[in-house]
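Reviewer comment 2.1 asked that we show a complete input and output for one of the modelled complexes. We chose the thymidine-5'-diphosphate case, as it is the one discussed in the main text.
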Amino acid sequence: MNRGKFIVFEGIDGSGKSTQLKLLAKYLEGRGVSCYATCEPTDSPFGGMLRSCLTGRLDADERAIAALFAADRFDHIFNPLNGLEGKLAAGITVLCDRYYLSSFAYNGGIVPLEWVIELNRPAMEALRPDLVVYIDVPAERSMERVARRGETERYETLDRQKKIREAYFRLFRRFETQEHIEIVKSESDKSDTQEKIRRIADELFGWRKACKRN
Ligand code: TYD
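Response of the prediction step:
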């Protein structure tokens, strides 16, 4: 049994990553790959606490929030009943909306980054993504989409989104030798963006040779 692939989507808020993730899952399923789509924060009790913090229903210390994101992630990976480790070992490809790079970009801008990285070390050692797709949108465009959704969350201001985007790019330089990161510019037509992601996935699955993309 071949191990499933672990594909992570990253981006600032409102970058359209969850839509792109669903479209990719549909494409892969169509090619006979069994897929499991998931996200962080998860819908576990840890994720529930995080959602309360993000919407302001619960006020908490930023270190506690960063630690909770890590706890949610460890449970997501290692939970004996439904953890990602088990799914990947069973040959299922996992598509995950956000992973530890979100913690570094978001929480690492508020509490010390090196501490957040250390906190997430068990996840980095146990389960590195086979591919990280970063959907790149300017902060202005992401804020337009966030505003259309209604309820804004803890980190959703233009200035903050700009800083998070810069943090992501610093992280990509820092981790370029350790992580397989593909930056995909979001096009105004979502199917054009999806087309680029599918070509990257084709290479990952060995369905086509690596070639120059733009
Ligand atoms: P998400 O549900 O992906 O928001 P959206 O659909 O708007 O992209 O993520 C919720 C928020 O949680 C988002 O603002 C990013 C933040 N977050 C962190 O701060 N640290 C983390 O480790 C993760 C996974 C998310």
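Residues 13-14, 18, 40-41, 54, 69, 97-98, 102-103, 106-107, 153, 155 surround thymidine-5'-diphosphate (CB under 6 Å). We note this here for comparison with the apo prediction described in Section 3.2.
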